[in-house]
Amino acid sequence: MKDCMSDDMKRKISEHPCYSPEAQHKFGRLHLAVAPSCNIQCNYCDRKFDCVNESRPGVTSEVLSPQEALERTTRILEQNPYISVIGIAGPGDPLDNDETFETFRLIREKFPEITLCISTNGLLLPDRFDELLESNVETLTVTMNAFDPEIQKEIISMVYYGGKKYEGREAAELLIQKQLEGIEKAVEAGMTVKINTVLIPGINDKHIVDLAKKMNELGVYIMNVMPLINQAAFADIVPPTDQERKVIQDACAPYVKQMRHCRQCRSDAYGLIGKDLSVEKQPRKKEFKP
Ligand code: SF4
Ligand code: SF4
């Protein structure tokens, strides 16, 4: 991969707790749960919970309005100045919710120096790309579990796009096409891109190294292979062991840098990774209802 990152971006990455393993002990992130709706259905997702891309199961989120998110950010940053990144990661898909962009606008206005980060399934990435750029989002995560539609169609059951519902191979092809196009645009525009890949034994485990090669071609900065949390339609699949995941990470490492310290945080987590401060200390305004 070419090293065409600006010095400012290099500094921001060195202070991003997910992109840099060294940063995780010194810098924190704050997730703002402002995005409840989602436009696809992953077979490992139980919508009663947070987006499994960035969550642990069994914990429902409060959904904040953009103004509430700004107030929460102000309060938390005052008490935790080591937080360097504000991210939106759910509980649904951030790009499927206009509140995401309004929240970024409010945060950017008040905290111009902070790094803005987003995590998405990528379906709307090309369509909403200009808005993302205008929001000044610098680090982008796309959950990409396969680029072979025959595999992807086993992982998602539905895609809702442009007022139409897609299923089967057609849904898989559409999602993959949008993800690849979006990643390409983001890399070209100078964003630093991470992909999250859920390792699903028997479904995509033999495909992930090829995915890493593909991501290398696109200029993706880092890859996060996450173990399946077995729930919903995938409740009966046995999740991979740490050792099985490590074997795959090691095989992918020659192609894309591997993130190995992910803790599958909630979409309203804040603080240092793995040492989250309790959300119960914050006022709970609205409960997320699927
Ligand atoms: Fe669930 Fe996230 Fe998949 Fe949407 S993208 S179905 S919220 S895991
Ligand atoms: Fe970082 Fe992983 Fe937590 Fe996302 S889920 S904030 S990538 S540690």
From TrEMBL:
GO terms for molecular function: 4 iron, 4 sulfur cluster binding; lyase activity; metal ion binding. Keywords: 4Fe-4S, Iron, Iron-sulfur, Lyase, Metal-binding, Nitrogen fixation, S-adenosyl-L-methionine. It holds the Pfam family Radical_SAM. Pathway: Cofactor biosynthesis; Fe-Mo cofactor biosynthesis. PROSITE patterns: MOAA_NIFB_PQQE, RADICAL_SAM. The keyword Coiled coil does not apply. SMART domains: Elp3. InterPro entries: Aldolase_TIM, Elp3/MiaA/NifB-like_rSAM, MoaA_NifB_PqqE_Fe-S-bd_CS, Nase_CF_NifB, rSAM, rSAM_sf. GO terms for biological process: molybdopterin cofactor biosynthetic process. Its cofactor is [4Fe-4S] cluster. Residues 24-268 form the Radical SAM core domain. The keyword Disulfide bond does not apply. It comes from the Archaea. Belongs to the radical SAM superfamily. NifB family. Involved in the biosynthesis of the iron-molybdenum cofactor (FeMo-co or M-cluster) found in the dinitrogenase enzyme of the nitrogenase complex in nitrogen-fixing microorganisms. NifB catalyzes the crucial step of radical SAM-dependent carbide insertion that occurs concomitant with the insertion of a 9th sulfur and the rearrangement/coupling of two [4Fe-4S] clusters into a [8Fe-9S-C] cluster, the precursor to the M-cluster. This is FeMo cofactor biosynthesis protein NifB.
